[in-house]
Every structure is written in C-alpha cells, then in structure tokens.
Amino acid sequence: MKTYLDCFPCFLNQALRAARMATTDERKIKKVVDEVGMMLQNISLESTPPESGRLIYQKVHEITGNPDPYREIKSQSTKKALSLYPYLKSLVENSENRLLTAIRIAIAGNVIDFGPNRAFDMETEIEMTLTKDFGICDYDLFENALNESNEILYIGDNAGECVFDRILIETLNKPVTYVVRGAPIINDATHADARQAGIDRVATLLSSGTDAPGTILETCSDTFIRIYNHAKLIISKGQGNYEALSNQKKSIFFLLKAKCRVIADDIGLKEGDIVLKKGRNRRM
Description:
Blueprint: H1 7-22, H2 26-40, H3 49-64, H4 71-83, H5 85-93, H6 98-108, H7 122-131, E1 134-137, H8 139-147, E2 152-155, H9 161-172, E3 176-180, H10 191-196, E4 204-207, H11 222-230, E5 234-237, H12 238-245, E6 252-257, H13 261-267, E7 274-278
Parallel strand pairs: 1-7, 2-3, 2-5, 3-4, 5-6
Antiparallel strand pairs: 6-7
Helix pairs in contact: 1-2, 1-3, 2-3, 4-9, 5-6, 5-9, 6-7, 6-9
C-alpha cells in the first residue's frame, strides 16, 4: 500500500505520542517533533507507511535513548488479554462454527494498537466483532486454503493481540509458525511478548528480523524470507502488515479491523469494518 497525504499528520502525531512515552524531557520531545517534521518532506507517496514508520521510530529512539517506550503498556495489554482467555475459549467451543468464531476473535484483538489508535475497550470490541457484519469475508476461500495446506505462516501484529491469535491458532489444527518483530517498535509483538501470551505453547516462534511496524520484506532476515517464499498459506494480522504486504502476489489472508480512513479507503470499505480478505495470488 502506498502512502497517502492523510498519513503525514498521523506520522507526526505518532512521533509525539511515542516521544512522550519514551521520556519526560520536553526538550527531547520537541527535538523529536522538529526532526520528524523535517523528515516528512522527504517521504515519498510511493513508499509504504511502515517504511516511514520505521525511520520515525528510529528517530524517537535516537533522540530519547529509549528503545522500547511501550514495554510496560505491552505487558499490561497481554495481562488483560490473558484474563479474557477462558472466556474467549468458551465462545469458540460453544459456537456453531468454531473456525469463523476464532477468526472473529483474532480480528477483535487487532483493536490493541497504540500507533494510530489508543482508545479502546477489549470487552466491547469482542462483543461487537462477534456480531458485526464483515466488510469483506473471504471465509470460503480461507477454509479451502486451510484444508489444502499442511502448515501455516502466521504473521503477528501487536502485543496483547497475540492472545487473541492464540485462540485462532488452537482452532486451526495445523502446525503454525508465528512471526514476531525483530526489535521493539510501537506495541508490536516481539519474542518476549509472544511468549508472555503463551504463543510458544501452540506454535513455533520466528522473528521476521525487521524493526519496522510491518513486514517490509527488504528489511527481513534471510531465514524469514526463505520460509515466507515457501509458505503456501499466510495469515497476516493488522494494518501494518497489510500496508507492507498488500501488493505481494502470495496466498495471503489479511485479518484486521480498518481503524483509520486511509486503510478503509485503500481496501474499499468503511472505517471500523472488519476484514478477512484474500490477497493477490501469483499466477501459476
């Protein structure tokens, strides 16, 4: 996905928010705003938002000296999500279509995002997502792809959200490799966050190697690229991964909530819509 003009004020707001999370020194916060503001003029509309986000958060780290300003809030989000785990499991076990319910729950977890969105309520989001109509629902295509696949590459998004992903992984009944970021970036999940959520009990953990808020393939490790290239079924969670991978010709299924107008417009939906969307296939 390309960068839109409306992304630029969002970039600046995210930089200010992250700087305030990283330090109380107003001189450093002002320097972040100043330098990120100057960076914006060099951002191409042809780049993806995660490419720009990577540079912006590197600047926050460089100026504040804090490599993981969201560390505590990530842990709190995971603890909150884990407290809901028994309830989430019961929703799946008591539903008529366990797989579709688990998909809805995984999408509900995508609200845990401290980049473009801060205000959310997990319980309310779960209840809404269980009954809300999909903006796009390629469920039949997903079910067919799942039946034809021996294993799944699952690209995670945010800490806390991992618990919701765990519910879906436990329902898939296939070997899963779960991908986390290579370094802290916003509240995106790292190895430590995924382990706290218990993902390591149900899937093989793999770092993508990138320090971007999305799976920018050019910044990923050789190990991840090799596994990605051979994967026949990929689940991609969240907006950042959609932004980075939406133009890829792979069998990717995007699971997300469209939390901003730019994403919604790019997909052709309304803001707030929930999505299970099949990406572009490579021609055989």
